[in-house]
UniProtKB/TrEMBL annotation:
Belongs to the glycosyl hydrolase 74 family. SUPFAM superfamilies: Oligoxyloglucan reducing end-specific cellobiohydrolase. It comes from the Bacteria. The keyword Signal applies. Keywords: Carbohydrate metabolism, Glycosidase, Hydrolase, Polysaccharide degradation, Signal. It comes from Sphingomonas abietis. InterPro entries: WD40/YVTN_repeat-like_dom_sf (IPR015943), Xyloglucanase_GH74 (IPR052025). This is Exo-alpha-sialidase.
Length: 765
C-alpha cells in the first residue's frame, strides 16, 4: 500500500521486528555439498555512492554500493569484507544509505532497496554487519536509481542512539525510537513527499540528507532535493518542530549532501539535478546556524566554469576550517576534489597535484593513464587521521595518506575485497587461461590468475559491454566476441576475434547490410548480433538479419542457408562440421553438418511441441543451447526452466532435472567414472532458489551454495571448468565473478566410497 494511503486513513505504521531469512523462499532441509567460495579479482569496478567512517572507532569504515551491497573495512586483515553475501533478496543489494552508530562502534544500520518498485528494508547489526536484523518498510528506496549519490539519508541521534531518522525519496521523513524496529512518518515535517512517481525510470530526490549536530543537543537538519520551495529545514527540539531556512543559492540548485563541523557550521553541496548524470551546474555554501548567515564558498564561479556540480563533502574532525568537496558529472576536463584550510576562502584543486598508482587494479589505465575519476559522489576524511582521506568514483575507490601534506598527493585504489562488477557472460575454455569474461561498462578480462586483477582488458575494439563470448573447443586459443557501447550505434566494429586465447583481439568487419524496411538499425550496428566459432576455429557464424559465414576470419562472407534470422547459434565443441540453432517459427532444432554453410531440421524427438520459451530476446541473455566440451553431439537445452539432453546431435531428447526449474546452467568437467559432464544450474527446487550440481547427466541434483553465499540472488551466467572437476564460475549482477571449489577432502572421500561400492559389487571387497 502506498504511503499516502496510510496517511489518509490516519495510521502510523508500526512494522514488527522480523529476523527474516535471507533466501528467496522457504528452505527445505537440503544439506549442501561443502564448497569454498572466492571472488575472481578485478577490484572495485562499479559505482559506490557513499563512504562512511565510524566516528568512534579508529580503522572502521563502511562503503555502500548501488547494486553490490555494503562493505566494512577490516583493518586487521587489510581488506573490505562484503556484508550482504547472505542475502537472497535482490533488491537489498542496492544500498540507499548507511549509518555508523556514534556511541557503540559495533552497531551499524543500512537502508536497503534497489528501486521504487522493489522491497525496501532497514538493516540493523550489533556486530559490525556480521549478522543483521531486517525490518521491511513501506517507504520506497532507490539504491540503484538516479539520486543514489545523495545522503546520507539515514541518521542516528548521538544523544539517544536508539532514535533514527530516515529521509525518504517519496514519502517524507520517518522516525524510529527503538533502534529501527518500528517506523512512523513524522507528521509535522513540512515536506511530506511527492508520492511514488509513475514510469519505469521516474524517481524523486526527496529528502537528500538528515544530519544531527553532535555538538548541539537536539539540533538537526534535513535537506530536500525536490524542486520548488525551501530546501533546508531545521529542528532544535529533536524533530518535534521544524522550520524552513531561507537563503543560500537560487532555487534551481538542490542540496545533495551536507556535513556539520565541530563549530556547528554546515557545509552543503548543490547540483541542478540529482545525478549522477545530467548535472550542468552546482555550488558549495556554508550555513552558520548561530548567526543565521549563508556564505557562498563555491571553488569555481563565473561564465567559464566547466559544466558539472558538487556532491561529495567532508570536514576534518580536528579542524572545522579544513573542508573538502568533490565535483560530479564534470567531464571537462575531469571530476576533481577541492581542499580548503580556511573554511572555503581559498581552494586547492587536488587533481592538479595528484598522481594515481593503480598497479593493484591496472584496468583503470584504460586511457593510458588512470584519470582522477568521475561521478565523485562520496568523499570522506578519516576522523582519527586527517591525512587519510578517500573518495569514490564510478569505477573504484581511491585513498591517500597524504591529504594534509603539500606536494604531490598519491592516491591508490582502496578496493581490496571489493568486487562490484556486473557480469554479462564468461567462458572457461578447454585450454589456455582458466577464465575469460564479458562485463558491463568495463568490457571484460582474460584472467591468467584468478587472484590478481589482470592488466588485460578487451581492446581492438574496446566495447564497453561484452555481450557474447565463444571459443573453439579443439583450438581454444581462438575466441570471438560481440559487444555494444553506451551509444545506440557502435562506433566501429561490434565483433572481434582472438588467436591467442583472448589476450589480443582484431575487429571483424561485415559486408554492408541492406537497409531495413522500417528504417531501423541492423543488429551488427547496435551490438545485437552474436558470433559463434567452430570447434577447429576456422569458421565464424554471425547472427545478423541474414546470417553470415566466414571461413577466413572475416575477410570474406557468404550467406548461410536454412538458418533463421536472429537466432543464437551453438557450435559443437568437438565436431567442427556441426553447428546448432533453434528455429522458433517451426519449433524445431536445425543443424549444420558442413561447417555452418547449410542448416537442416533434426528429428528433435522428445522436445516439447513449442520451443518459444527458449527464445533469446535480449543480446545479453545466455544461450539456452549448450554443447559439451569433450563429447561430440552431446547437447543440452533449457526450455523455460525445463532441461533437456540429447546424445545424438539433437535427433532425440530426454527431459532431465525433473523438479528443478532452471534459470541458468553451465557445463564442467565430469566426475571420474561418470560419462556425463558436471552440470551446474541456478534455479528453484522444492521452493529453494539456489546453486545446484549434477554429475549423473541431470538425474540427481545437490545444492552447492549455502545460506551465507547467495550474493543477493542476482545472477547472470554460470559455467563449470572443463579441466578442473567441481569448479564453477558464477557471474553476478553487482558482486563480480565468484568461483567455487569443493572443500578439500570432500570429493576425495566421496570417490573412496564410490570405489569401495564398486569393489563390493564385484565381490572383491
Amino acid at each position: 500500500m502506498a504511503a499516502h494511503v496510510w496517511r489518509r486513513i490516519g495510521i502510523a505504521l508500526s512494522v514488527a521486528v522480523a529476523m527474516l531469512p535471507a533466501g528467496l523462499s522457504a528452505r527445505p532441509a537440503v544439506k549442501p555439498i561443502p564448497y569454498r567460495w572466492q571472488n575472481v579479482a578485478v577490484g572495485g569496478g562499479g559505482f559506490a555512492p557513499g563512504i562512511v567512517f565510524s566516528p568512534v572507532q579508529r580503522g572502521l569504515a563502511y562503503l555502500r554500493t548501488d547494486m553490490g551491497g555494503a562493505y566494512r573495512w577490516d583493518s586487521g586483515n587489510g581488506r573490505w569484507a562484503p556484508l550482504e553475501d547472505d542475502q537472497g533478496v535482490a533488491s537489498y543489494m542496492g544500498v540507499e544509505s548507511i549509518a555508523a552508530d556514534p556511541i557503540d562502534a559495533n552497531i551499524v544500520y543500512l537502508a536497503a532497496g534497489m528501486s521504487k518498485d522493489l522491497p525496501a528494508a532497514i538493516f540493523r547489526s550489533a556486530d559490525r554487519g556480521a549478522h543483521w536484523r531486517i525490518v521491511p518498510v513501506p517507504f520506497a528506496m532507490g539504491g540503484n536509481e538516479d539520486g543514489r549519490g545523495l545522503g546520507e539519508r539515514l541518521a542516528i541521534d548521538p544523544q539517544r542512539h536508539a532514535t533514527l531518522l530516515f529521509g525518504s525519496r517519496h514519502d517524507g521523513l520517518w522516525r524510529s525510537d527503538d533502534s529501527g524496529a518500528h517506523w512512523a512518518q513524522v507528521a509535522g515535517f513540512p515536506r511530506p513527499g511527492l508520492g511514488v512517481p509513475a514510469g519505469r525510470r521516474a524517481t524523486h530526490g526527496g529528502l537528500s540528507f538528515v544530519l544531527f549536530d553532535p555538538h548541539h543537543f537536539a539540533r538537526l537538519f534535513v535537506g530536500s532535493a525536490d524542486p520548488g520551495g525551501v530546501h533546508l529545514f531545521r529542528s532544535d527540539d529533536g524533530g518535534a518542530r521544524w522550520r524552513g531556512i531561507e537563503g543560500g543559492p537560487d532555487n534551481g540548485l538542490l542540496p545533495v549532501k551536507a556535513v556539520v563541523g565541530s563549530d556547528g557550521v554546515l557545509t552543503i553541496t548543490y547540483c541542478d539535478a540529482i545525478g549522477p548524470n545530467g548535472i550542468t551546474r552546482g555550488a558549495v555554501w556554508r550555513y552558520d546556524p548561530a548567526a543565521g548567515q549563508w556564505t557562498d564558498i563555491t571553488p569555481l564561479r563565473g561564465a567559464d566554469t566547466p559544466p558539472g556540480g558538487y556532491m561529495g563533502v567532508a570536514v576534518s574532525v580536528q579542524d572545522p576550517r579544513v573542508i573538502a568537496v568533490s565535483t560530479v558529472d564534470r567531464g571537462r576536463p575531469v571530476d576533481t576534489v577541492w581542499r580548503s584550510t580556511d573554511a572555503g576562502r581559498h581552494w586547492d584543486e587536488l587533481w592538479q597535484r595528484s598522481k594515481r598508482d593503480v598497479r593493484a587494479t591496472p584496468f583503470l589505465n584504460l586511457d593510458g593513464q588512470a584519470n582522477f575519476g568521475h561521478w565523485i559522489a562520496g568523499l570522506a576524511i578519516d576522523p582519527f587521521d586527517p591525512g587519510h582521506a578517500a573518495y569514490v568514483t564510478g569505477a573504484t575507490v581511491y585513498a591517500t595518506t597524504g591529504f594534509d601534506r603539500p606536494g604531490t598527493m598519491l592516491w591508490t585504489p582502496w578496493t581490496e575485497g571489493i568486487e562490484q562488477t556486473a557480469i554479462i557472460t564468461l567462458v572457461s575454455p578447454t585450454g589456455g587461461v582458466p577464465l575469460v569474461s564479458g562485463l558491463g561498462d568495463i568490457a571484460g578480462f582474460r584472467h591468467d590468475d584468478l587472484a590478481i586483477s589482470p592488466a588485460h582488458l578487451h581492446l581492438d575494439p574496446y566495447l564497453t559491454n561484452t555481450n557474447t563470448l565463444d571459443y573453439a573447443g579443439r583450438a581454444p586459443a581462438i575466441m570471438v566476441r560481440s559487444g555494444s557501447t553506451h551509444t545506440r550505434i557502435v562506433p566501429g566494429a561490434s565483433l572481434a576475434w582472438s588467436w591467442d586465447g583472448g589476450e589480443r583481439w582484431s575487429p571483424i568487419a561485415l559486408p554492408p547490410s541492406s537497409p531495413r524496411a522500417d528504417g531501423s538499425v541492423p543488429p551488427e550496428a547496435t551490438g545485437d548480433a552474436a558470433i559463434t566459432v567452430s570447434a577447429d576455429g576456422r569458421n565464424f557464424v554471425v547472427e545478423t538479419d541474414r546470417p553470415l559465414l566466414s571461413r577466413d576470419q572475416g575477410h570474406s562472407w557468404q550467406p548461410v542457408e536454412g538458418l533463421p534470422s536472429r537466432v543464437r547459434v551453438t557450435a559443437d565443441k568437438v565436431d567442427a562440421r556441426r553447428f546448432y540453432a533453434i528455429d522458433f517459427a517451426a519449433h524445431h532444432l536445425v543443424r549444420s553438418e558442413d561447417g555452418g554453410a547449410h542448416f537442416q531440421p533434426t528429428a528433435g524427438l522428445g522436445l516439447p511441441r513449442t520451443l518459444s520459451a527458449a527464445a533469446v530476446t535480449w543480446r545479453e541473455a545466455q544461450n539456452p543451447l549448450l554443447a559439451t566440451p569433450d563429447c561430440p553431439g552431446l547437447l543440452w537445452l533449457n526450455v523455460g526452466g525445463d532441461l533437456y539432453r540429447s546424445a545424438d546431435a539433437g535427433d532425440r531428447w530426454t527431459r532431465v532435472g525433473q523438479g528443478l526449474s532452471v534459470a541458468y546452467y553451465g557445463l564442467g568437467k565430469g566426475a571420474r567414472g561418470q560419462g556425463w559432464p558436471a552440470v551446474f544450474a541456478i534455479g528453484r527446487r522444492q521452493g529453494l532458489f539456489a546453486v545446484w550440481r549434477s554429475v549423473d547427466g541431470g538425474g540427481t541434483w545437490r545444492r552447492i551454495n549455502d545460506h551465507g553465499h547467495q550474493w543477493g540472488a542476482r545472477f547472470r551466467v554460470i559455467s563449470g571448468d572443463p579441466r578442473r572437476y567441481g569448479r564453477v564460475y558464477i557471474g553476478t549482477d553487482g558482486r563480480g565473478i565468484v568461483y567455487g571449489d569443493p572443500e578439500r577432502g570432500t570429493e576425495i572421500q566421496r570417490e573412496i566410497r564410490r570405489n569401495r561400492a564398486r569393489l563390493r559389487d564385484s565381490g572383491k571387497y
